[in-house]
Amino acid sequence: MLVFTRKADEAIVIGDGVEVKVLRIGRDTVRIGVTAAPHVPVHRREIYDQIRAANASAAAEPDAARALVSRLRQRASRQEPHD
Amino acid sequence: MTTDVAVHEEVVTFADGLPGFESSHRFVLVASPSLDPFTLLQGMGPDAPSFVAIDPRQVEPSFAGEAALADRARLDAAPGAPLLWLALVSAHEHAPATVNLRAPIVINPASMRGIQIVPAESPYRLDHPLG
User: Fold this and answer.
1) Contact, B97 vs B69, CB < 8 A?
2) Quick check: is B1 in a domain?
3) CATH number, position B20
4) B112 CA to chain A: closest CA distance, Å?
5) Does some domain include residue B129?
6) pLDDT tens digits in sequence order for chain A, 83 residues long
7) Is residue B125 in some structural domain?
8) Nearest by CB to A59, which of B49, B92, B120?
9) Parent domain of B28
10) Main-chain phi, psi angles of A45, to 5 degrees
11) Interface test with chain A among B21, B50, B99, by most A beta carbons within 10 Å
């Protein structure tokens, strides 16, 4: 890991056009600004990790995915009253 | 190979993959009356994951997805161009299935590019009960 010491208003540049700037330093938090091209995704790590876990729980083998659809459709048709 | 003429399959490209599956870039979107109201996102290639997905409005009628300008840029979608929204379904061993409304899949039907939205804040749950 590259480690930098930065003061407020100082920045680092990553690659060809991503800038990470320290905007404000508080007691417990640091406010950071990221400038990147619109197609570059920038996420908060903990949120990305939550969604990664949700995706892992949703991922299935193709056959298992089809079996899940069958189960869910059967359950739905049992719940819906028929005329 | 299939005899179901109503089956609709198209390849969607996720340039960044999905969180946790960053190297899975191509998925077949499978829709057919035998799956309705669900669709399948079948990863292409060995070890690629498959997902069961559903229109978020089927689960939460008030669902209002919004693609930020940056999201639209990643999808190559002009402002206002129609987008396809899907939410991933999770099965659980001892509990009913849930739907991830917080981080929906968004597909631009014009370019067949897809992304998964990773919102900093959202009124929706990662594990919304599937009704």
Assistant:
1) no
2) no
3) 2.30.290.10
4) 16
5) no
6) 999 999 999 999 999 889 999 999 999 999 999 999 888 888 999 999 999 999 999 999 999 999 999 999 988 777 766 55
7) no
8) B49
9) 8-118
10) -55, -45
11) B50
